[in-house]
Amino acid sequence: MRIQAAVxxxxxxxxxxxxxxMEPPRGDEILVRILGVGICHTDLVVRDAGEALxxxxxxLGHEGSGVVEEVGCDVTKVDVGDRVAITFRSCGECDxxxxxxxxxxxxxxxxxxGGTRRDGSSPLKNNQxxxxxxxxxxxxxxxxxxxxxxxxxxxxxxIATELAGPLGCGVQTGAGAIINALAVPKGASLLITGGGPVxxxxxxxxxxxxxxxxxxxxxxxSRRELxxxxxxxxxIDPTVVxxxxxxxxxxxxxxxxxxxxxxxxxxxxxxxxQCLGSKGVLGVVxxxxxGTPVPGDVNQTVSMGQTIRGIVExxxxxxxxxxxxxxxxxxxxxxxxxxxxxxxxxxxxQAIQDQHDGKxxxxxxxxN
Length: 368
Hints:
Elements: E1 2-8, E2 15-22, E3 29-38, H1 41-49, E4 58-59, E5 64-71, E6 83-86, H2 95-98, H3 108-113, E7 124-126, E8 129-131, E9 144-148, E10 152-154, H4 170-181, E11 189-193, H5 197-209, E12 213-217, H6 221-230, E13 234-236, H7 244-251, E14 256-261, H8 266-275, E15 276-284, H9 298-303, E16 307-310, H10 318-330, E17 340-344, H11 348-356, E18 362-366
Parallel strand pairs: 11-12, 11-14, 12-13, 14-15, 15-16, 17-18
Antiparallel strand pairs: 1-2, 1-4, 2-7, 3-5, 3-9, 3-18, 5-6, 6-10, 7-8
Helix pairs in contact: 4-5, 5-6, 7-8
């Protein structure tokens, strides 16, 4: 079938809207008509890195949502007409998946960033040849995507189909870091660095957890204001503060119990470590430049019993956690849709620029 897609190409910092060919779903595949797809920082990192991270040309996009149009003969989880959100893919067979740690699947790299099906084929092509696909098991910067039983979740009634995609990555990552990975307890103090979609999702989750003190470090005023509405007790503008750790310790003299970094920036992570108290834990999710050292000083880390915790996709088992996020949203505890601005898919490059310029927080593209 012919579909429209935003295609990433080598040596290009923009996406090209093209009509391409997609194969029909195989036995284990699910054809989803995409109604909305979020733009995630990971999409842009891969686009800019080119062949170093993913084979090009490629269709990226990994926060898709839509309606099931066709299912393979082996699929039993969903039916034609079901509304679904699409998340990362996992094998379901390895020891990590069997233990409920789907985000640490032993086959995660191949299934999410290999650019092909497991047999090496791609269902996408244009007149020049094959196009890399299966990005996070979906490649949803398109009017249609092929997904799998392990990475589709039915959307609960009351949630707009086109806005459900960010639950599959950005919201899941930020909220899951606080609720699952760090399991921040009620009454704890928490520092969050970076007020993008992931950081703001962490703020909402901190309120769900009942944190006593929640401090957000973020340079953009509009994001700081929204964080206060979402549950932050304090915000700090790092562009006007010389020593962030000093300001944090004026709020929490003994240092914070937990810190969560969504920036991946070395100086920001180092500063977060200086804000930790005794036995404090720093959770890290941001994509850092290759070779970025682990933050902190080993002597301080040892003497204070501190922990640095890497987190992938919020330690989520999507079949369990995404429905929980939907419940929180419907109950008014996770108003993630307030972060979202929608754009036609044909305006993807303008949407990315607007997000970069701070004109919006979270972009969701609406395919034509």
